[in-house]
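Researcher: Let's continue the batch. This sequence belongs to Tellurium resistance, and it's 429 residues. Same format as the previous ones, please.
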Amino acid sequence: MPKGSNVPVPTTALRVEIGWRSGPGVPDTDASALLLAGGKVRSDADFVFYNQPQHASGALRYEGKQNSGAAVTDTLAVDLARVEPAIETVVLAASADGGAFGQVPGLYVEVKDAARGTVVARFDSEGATVETAFVLGEFYRRQGAWKFRAVGQGYSSGLEGLATDFGIAVDEPQHTAPAAPRAAAPPPPAAPPFTPAPVAPPATVPAPPPPAPPAAPVRLTKVTLTKNAPSVSLTKQGGTSGALRVNLNWQVRKQFSGWGSKRGRAVAMHSDLDLDLCALYELADGSKGVVQALGNAFGALHQPPFIHLDGDDRTGAVASGENLTVNLDHKNAFRRILVFVTIYEGARSFADLHATVTLQPQYGAAIDFSLDECTVPSPVCALALITNTGGDLVVQREARYLVPERGVSPQRTVDYAYGWGMNWTPGRK
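Model: Same format as before. Here are the structure tokens for Tellurium resistance:
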């Protein structure tokens, strides 16, 4: 589609993919959407992005990134039939993190029929330079039907500038110069003496109700844990309630089969790789256990252990990959949680595997980190340790590859390394 053109779209479930080509020096890019009435959001809740991934109406959901070689897509699920009548426009945007769109090759937005996978509309954005945010396209109502328009409007002020332009209150630090000291005012002249006249007592007027507290502004920041800054408080990031979603996605750099050697060096051989996201937990009452696909120990979200494994995936995709959910409404029930990953089949080591861990609180900033290069024959990696310290949950990046002793399972190896003290029996899925 050329810039400024439009096309009708069906009122069905749609997938909006914002894509680009990755490579050295290419900044990360994030998709977002804004629901507008009269050209502005009605409230900050009408902004859907990585820190606020779902709209209350169910019309929009941020699903996250997928990597396929050099191609990267960030996806939004859109159901136009569920868009509220007051909403006239759904803006589809992208923001660059750590650079400008002049460094992002092959930027495009593509609208697909979610059920059929067919392309409904596509717009390729070209000619970007210093822009750090883009409105790529928009859905808009016209005579009771929906259309998609290719927009291609850039912003040099990033996601913050784009969001505030549409009426979002953004929680970003403000730096202001200190106010200059004011000169002391001269004393007022003395009032002349007077004799007060008798007055009737004032009528009693009920005090007005206190104003409602302002809504918390939207936080745009993401938190990336590193070796030098390995931990973060969920409380300080605003993640004190709701669901904490832990996602593991990966990309196999090389495709082999089996385990062999090359010039005397052991190498991992990947074919149908199956990774399992797991969690050891210890509750405040002293009970301990594991949540994992092995043995169908998927846990429970609304009863102990308040941790649930969503499913078992083999693709590594963000939207449908390995996901584990922690119920932060019961955070005081936790003493510690260790999130780890094992290789169930398809490889004997994490070598040549690029994996990223994302912890997304329902309320608060996303927390992510990448795993280091694996240089040992490790089939199990401790990812993150979540510890309750005085009512605050602290997330610690572990990224620790473990090598089991002969005859020792990966789960028991993690147990030994972190002193969980559980009894293990063989299991299968």
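Researcher: Any comment?
Model: The longest helix spans residues 410-418.
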